[in-house]
Design brief:
Helix content: 55-70%
Radius of gyration: 26 Å
Number of strands: 2
Structural class: mainly alpha
Amino acid sequence: MEKQEGREAAAVRFDDPWYDALASGWGELDGTGAPAPVPPQPAPAGRDATGPSAAEIYLEVQRSAAFQEVRGRYRRFVVPATLAFFTWYVVYVVAATTAHDLMARPVAGAVNVAMVAGLGQFLTTFVLTWAYARHARLRRDRAALDLRWDTQELTRGIKGTVR
């Protein structure tokens, strides 16, 4: 990518509040050329040092009703969609290999049933991808993001967790 004269590169802004926290302290020098040590972060207010471990917190979140609801919504979409698409694909392959007369039947000019069904495979893939992204955006993303924030707040300050 060439740099244009008279124009500065635009800075990329991330709205994720955890973005800067993940890399803080990495690559910073202490004045001698050695990496500066990262000071330990104190536990959040209202949390004692003998609280639950990260593993216990993640298991608690996994057992929560909110997490089970997100997983249930995911499964209620993905399992039927996968079965329907796989069935449609197998029917296409079996028909292409066994029903030569059906697949060779012309639809319009040189276009036959096999070509229409093959293009239908591509169309189905795009439609299914769109439907999955829409379902995730409307039914799961907000709840999953809320779970992420809650989990990050619970694990903040636990020794050995990535912040």
